[in-house]
Amino acid sequence: MERSAEGGLPRVLPGLSAPRFVGRAAELHRLTDALARPPATVLVEGEAGIGKSRLVQEALDEPGVAALRPLAAMCPPFREALTLSPVVDAARDAQPDVAELALTPLAGVLRPLFPEWAQDLPPAPEALSDAGAARHRLFRALAELLDAMGVGVLVLEDVHWADEATLDFLLFLTSRRTRRMSLVLTYRPEDVAPESALMRLTSRPPAGTGYVRICLGALDVPQTAELMSSMLDGEHVSETFASFLQERTDGVPLAIEESVRLLRDRADLVRRDGEWVRRTLADIAVPPTIRDAVAERASRLTPDAQRVLRAASVLAEPVGPAVLATVSGLPDNVAGGAVDAAVRSGLLGEDRAGRVSFRHALAARAVYDMTPAPDRRALHRGAGSSLRAMTPQPVARLAHHYREAGDTGQWREYAELTADLALASGDHRTAVGLLYELLTGNDPPAASVARWAQKMPVLAFAGLVARGDLIRALRRVLDGEALAPHDRAAVRIQLGRMLLQVAEYAAATVELEKALPDLAGDPFQAAWAMNTLGSPPSTMMSAEEHRRWLNRAADAARLPMTADQRLALVGDRATSLLDMGDETGWAVAAELPDTATTPEGMMQLARGGLNIGNSALRWGRYDEARALLTTGLARAEEHRYQRLQDMIRVTLVHLDWFTGAWDGLAERAAALAGVEEEPVVQLDALLITALLDRATGGGGADPGPVAVAVDEGGLGTVEERLRQVLDAGLRRGIVDLPLEPAAALARIRLAEGSAAEAVELTDGPADVVARKNIWLWATEFAPVRTGALLAVERPDRARQFVADLAEGLSGRNLPAADAALETCRGVLAEGEGRSVEAAAAFGRAATAWRRLPRPYEALRAAERRAGCLLAAGDRDTGLAELARAQAGFTALGARTDAARVHGARHAAGAPVREVWRGGRRGYGDQLSPRELEVVRLMLTGLTNPAIARALSRSPKTIAAQLNSAMRKYGVTSRTALAVSLTQAGITPAEGHATGAESPRSDL
């Protein structure tokens, strides 16, 4: 009883009940209906407090859904996450009889996640070093466990807090062909990061499954009144009061509930004429946020109950009452009563297992935020002490609590244990994240740095943004004096591996050389480092120096080591020899077995298929290259080596570019150019998109995020993409990567008449080849360099270059390089006016290219032969050769080249006409009126978006029209197009100042 403020009469405070389920009947029907037709994916989204969890719980209580044996999990708001912890904890809490489950040997990989089940799980299989393969195997095992437990519905709440491994597991579940399990996921859309894998689940329905997306909105006034009434023993609530509260709470159920509880605590509810009403509006203040309401309600509890609330907010997960009492630090004689009082307040609740936690994360956060920082640290420390006694220890949560407690030593201990568990489980990404934090923290102990660095799974390490901090941290330790020699060597080797992984070859070489003196006791690591130094793409060493390192590595490889280690060394040695054009590399490659007995051995064979196949590609042995790469890809796919799959696929794309298999090639290359965190894959794919676009005269497929954006929404031109690959190769120290883009850029410059620039572009590649004495590498740039030297009137240098190339290839069987040499001889003879000899040389070159087969280069050589025949007076043969070349280019899809040959035939007086293939007739070689508008504006210096705005067209349309104009004029850049247009008498558009904007292109 209380005294009424109005008249001093006794007032009865209302008793409060748990709110009924209100206003969601349609949503509940959609959810249960979807689960009745498995497999289904149900996404429940809405803001905090809107009722997502209540909706899901109501559905799970339906008899038909309960019969599906649902398993409910919740993602905690922890920074540190143990691998798949929400699903693992839910499976553990379900307490299945593991010994009775029909599990295959695959389930052995679950041992690190469920150590308490070790006696009932199969033996652990051998670890996999490939991150993708390890993670996929773990996902398969966990899915098998859930299937064996009979789980028909997996519920995961607060997925916006899910760790990366858990999100990837959900994607895995939705992609299974034999999927039977339904998924129910709840999340707050406003808290989902744009790059989150959850966006992939929410943006497109999984194929072949039911898909329901439920967006929960606010309650209206009648629903608000019903919810309030349900808390007040079903008695009527005035419409005015309900409208008032609905407006103040935005109709959010949790806010309504908390406001009713707070108004009750304040004695602001008045029963008048048989219904509950508010006092006058002037007398009632509803808190503006749920946090404010929770804070005020908490402040009305006893100090001991408030202490329990603070402890629960720090724990942030359901725990037993004893744990909560211990963490709160209250004496035993008052702790139980304080816990009960906190539960009776309605802020805390109990689950079916008797564990206590906040009923809503918002309430927990409100209490956490209003807890003074010193108290929070003490409570986190208490949580750590309490949880350490659990078996198995929740190491990720311990790391979280000790971090928040400011106990760096304990945080390091449990963060490392969490990383160890992640590694043992095959979750390399989680391990990388934890080890990165350990290594880049403030003043880590040198001995620990050595241990942590050696644990870093290098094949999973490709974070280009974070890499700089990590490498600087390792170098700081190496620069000190605290490391023992063996530890210093181990850190240098690992640092070298990381640098190689992100294609920083020159820097990696420095670290490996420094490590060698301390590796006497580790023959494999020493041999691996020497093999790496013997790899031609890694440094500017000469071929002889590389051979010396390879020979030293071969000697070290004779010392005791595992069969898998020896397999890796053989594959690397074969690759290095072949990269130098050394025939003995094929004999070494033949030492590799057809199969291996371990996953690591199979990965080394897949690597061998990639690397030796790439060498065969460079040699021009394309049939062998395809066989090696195809076999390597099959092995990589079988064992889920994702990184190797991507690298083999991009090498096959390169092979298809060479061999003229261009159908669908642009799309494949563009997809690989978007592979995240794989710079070598991205750059090679980007190179192919540029080469293909230059040949076909098309914009090609979108080359992905790695492409240079020249303005909003635009993609780099062919030249910009080639320049990006060239610059990246030079910057990263990948000695052979710049050779092909430099050759392509030089061809463009030479065609434009900028011969001096073409010479400059090939000076670097020529210097690399000469200094390393690896003339195999001259295949791509040798012909254009020869032509450029002749064009700048340096025939002496051209002759010397061709002579050096011939000497460097002498006695070797290098089909692609030999074809390039014949092309160079043709270019040299043509430039010196020896047309008959040039025609013969180009004929031999065309035959050699065709034999590989490399049809694009064969057609280019045939075109050059035709020109020489015409110059020599053999008009009929020359024109016939040009006609065949044009037909060949057209069949290949090389529209730019076909247009150029068409122009050459026309200039030579041959009767030519455009072939009409039905449909609307085009404008032939002439610009259409719309194209003419575009090019005249381009001549004023406007960018593509500016032209689009001026003409009210899309930038994509402008790019296509400029591309068409380039194709008609037989050029590949805006600069060359501008020159051709000016020569043709086309003038800039009037009313647009030339140079108003810098001339850039979206093409």
Structure description:
- The protein has 1003 residues and is mainly alpha-helical.
- 59% of the residues lie in helices and 4% in strands.
- The protein contains 46 helices and 11 strands.
- The N and C termini lie far apart (80 Å).
- Mean pLDDT is 84; it is low at 1-13, 462-466, 700-715, 915-922 and 993-1003.
Note the main sheet: 5 strands, parallel
| Contiguous helical run count | 46
Order of neighbouring strands in the sheet with most strands: 4-5-6-3-7
Roughly how many Å apart are the termini? 80 Å
Class from helix and strand fractions: mainly alpha
* Radius of gyration from the alpha-carbon trace, in angstroms: 36 Å
Low-confidence stretches: 1-13, 462-466, 700-715, 915-922, 993-1003
Number of strands: 11
The percent range for strand residues is: under 5%
What is the approximate shape? Answer: globular
Q: In which range does the helix fraction lie?
A: 55-70%
Mean pLDDT: 84
Fill in the keyword field for this structure.
mainly alpha, globular, five-stranded parallel beta sheet, disordered N terminus, 1003 residues, 46 helices
Please outline what is shown here:
The protein is mainly alpha-helical and 1003 residues long.
